[in-house]
Amino acid sequence: MDDNRSGSRVNTRRRLCRIAFTALLGIAALTGSAGCSSSSVPVTSVAQANAAVSQVYHVADGDKIRVTVFDEPNLTGDYQVGLDGMLQLPLIGRITAAGLSSAALSDAIAAALKGGGYVLSPRVAVELTEHQPIFVLGEVKTPGQYPYVSNMTLEQAVAEAGGFTPRANKGVIVLRRQQWDSAKKVRLGDSSLMIAPGDTITVQEAFF
Question: What is the rounded radius of gyration, in angstroms, for the C-alpha atoms of the chain?
Answer without folding.
Answer: 21
